[in-house]
Amino acid sequence: MGPFIGLILAAGLGKRMRSALPKVLHEVAGVPMVDHVFRTVRDAGAKKVLVLVGHGGERIEEHFRANVEIVWQKEQLGTGHAVMCAADALSGYDGAVVVVPGDVPLLQASSIRHLVEQHEKSGSAATMLTMVLSDPAAYGRVVRDGAGRVTGVVEFKDASDEIRTVREVNTGVFCFSTRLLFEALPHVTNDNQQGEYYLPDVIPVLISRGHAVSALTLSDPLEGMGVNSRVELASAERVMRDRKRWEVMDSGVTLVDPGSTFIDMDVRIGRDTVILPFTIIQGSTSIGESCSVGPYVNIRDAVVGDGCKIGPFSFIRPGTVLADSVKVGDFVEVKNAKIATGSKVPHLTYVGDAIIGSGVNVGAGTITCNYDGYKKHTTVIEDGAFIGANSNLVAPVTVGREAYVATGSTVTTDVPPGSLAIARARQENKEGWVAKLKATRAAREENR
Ligand code: UD1
Ligand code: CA
């Protein structure tokens, strides 16, 4: 397969999403749709990727930073006009260009490679990726001549009842010979129901100019699913989630109940880790080998070492780094905290903005009081320290190596290594107090 450039169309508003967010930035399995498409095009081997933006373009540009070349389409006059806007960016280039809509997140890199290969082999000016659907819905219908050659696409809104019965549809993905594409595009008109310049209309123009056009049909039509509404977004989400579950299990992770386990695309999990039901692992989280996670656990943008035990009902938030063999138990929230090897935070605790050493035990109900209403402060608990249950650690504060904090303490100043901090009111027992109380009450009753 020869080199090609990828062009992703992402300028549309996505009206049917009814959203303030540009359609292609809506996430599928934790990654924006347009990023899925970008990765697919890159993984297929594109030597360069252009992303065409318009609606919410600044946000898309910001998302990609320097990874792609951005091309602007100021006014959205249709997919044909969109490609025309990339003419300058592609001037002087005469290789293949693969055009992919930004709303086909399920497309696989291998399909793009097959498309480019077929394009080269057939010596076509344009090669269209199609799919056959039992319910072709509102997709553009592929029209073929008596010999089975593709002659064009009729958009659903422009299609007669007869054409609407066609089940082969356009995925929106094309491979073009760049020079021939830009020679033909200016001949496309907007004389149709939507008054738009349709990219597929370049096909009859190319044919009339004597060029060959071919098509490749996806073997798995799920890949070509276009996401135009929230309902379609949810369908794509289900497929992508399943792919990720499959990948994770294939790499040696046990998902006790795949259906109630949600793992974002960029999550990494080591082998022999067991994920128990009702667990959501998000963002760029990485989990080591031989851990037990769940049930009912939510982890986002965290790093978890090997042999950790997390759950049930734990909430692990961004910036958390757990070393090996750490235990985080029920109703524990950890945020932006480092916890070193073998430490335990077993129950009912908030650990935020903290650095916890190794071999530390944090008793039930401990709270790091990290926020004073203006700033967040750090709590440090050094190696081997023991925090008694129901303690408050008012940051900034340090509990020294192997120190003890007595149960129920509110610690406001540093605890030196090896010492015991007791920071609570001393207990006083009043002997015979209950008998006196009873006597007083009885006397009061008599006087009524
Ligand atoms: C398009 C195809 C249709 C195909 C379907 C597959 C056309 C005219 N129709 O329809 O044949 O079956 O995809 O999913 O091409 N975009 C721009 N600028 C524009 C218009 C669109 O960048 O001026 C982008 C959109 O952001 C989107 C993509 O092009 O990512 C496709 O546009 P969309 O409006 O979703 O086209 P469909 O109606 O789905
Ligand atoms: Ca679409």
Report on the structure:
The strands form 6 sheets. The protein has a 16-stranded parallel sheet that branches. Strands 5-4-1-6-10-7-11 form a 7-stranded mixed sheet. The protein is elongated. Helix 1 packs across helix 4 (109-122). The longest helix is centred in the middle third of the chain and has 21 residues, at 230-250. It has 448 residues and is an alpha/beta fold. Strand 4 (48-53), helix 2 and strand 5 (69-72) form a beta-alpha-beta unit. It binds uridine-diphosphate-N-acetylglucosamine and calcium ion (CA).
How are the SSEs placed, and which strands pair?
Elements: E1 4-10, E2 27-28, E3 31-32, H1 33-44, E4 48-53, H2 57-64, E5 69-72, H3 79-84, E6 96-101, H4 109-122, E7 126-132, E8 141-144, E9 150-154, H5 161-164, E10 168-177, H6 178-184, H7 202-208, E11 213-217, H8 230-250, E12 254-255, E13 261-263, E14 268-269, E15 274-275, E16 279-282, E17 286-287, E18 292-293, E19 297-300, E20 303-304, E21 309-310, E22 314-316, E23 321-322, E24 327-339, E25 344-356, E26 361-362, E27 367-369, E28 379-381, E29 386-387, E30 392-394, E31 397-399, E32 404-405, E33 410-411, E34 420-421, H9 433-446
Parallel strand pairs: 1-4, 1-6, 4-5, 7-11, 12-15, 13-16, 14-17, 15-18, 16-19, 17-20, 18-21, 19-22, 20-23, 21-24, 22-24, 23-24, 24-25, 25-28, 26-29, 27-30, 28-31, 29-32, 30-33, 32-34
Antiparallel strand pairs: 2-3, 6-10, 7-10, 8-9
- Estimate the helix proportion, in percent: 10-25%
Count up the helices: 9
Count of DSSP E strands?
34
Q: Rg, please?
A: 31 Å
Describe the main β-sheet briefly. 16 strands, parallel
What is the residue-averaged pLDDT? 97
* Overall 3D shape: elongated
Q: Which blocks of ≥5 consecutive residues have pLDDT under 50? A: none
What distance separates the N and C termini? 103 Å
The amount of beta strand, in percent, is 25-35%
Structural class: alpha/beta
Say which molecules are bound, naming each kind only once. Answer: uridine-diphosphate-N-acetylglucosamine, calcium ion
